[in-house]
Write a structure and sequence with these properties.
Largest sheet: 5 strands, antiparallel
Radius of gyration: 13 Å
Distance between the termini: 16 Å
Order of helices and strands: EEEEEH
Number of helices: 1
Number of strands: 5
Structural class: mainly beta
Strand order of the largest sheet: 1-2-5-4-3
Strand content: 35-45%
């Protein structure tokens, strides 16, 4: 799993695995899901990150596991 923040594009991308992306769909304004050949979600892109999370400090992203 990889998380990429693109400050220039103001976007966050979460890639769940390395399988090839065969289709993408915007499921909500600024939220794009990437699908593999088995129709599984393998990536999630969130556009306009600064508007969705004002004051977000990208250098301090925290991860939690249960």
């Amino acid at each position: 799993m990889r998380l990429k923040v693109d400050r220039e594009a103001d976007a966050l991308y979460l890639r769940l695995d390395d399988s090839p992306i065969v289709e993408s769909e915007e499921v909500s304004p600024g939220i794009v899901l990437d699908f593999n050949a088995q129709n599984q979600v393998v990536g999630v892109e969130m556009l306009n990150l600064s508007k969705r999370a004002p004051g977000l400090n990208i250098k301090e992203l925290q991860f939690q596991t249960a």
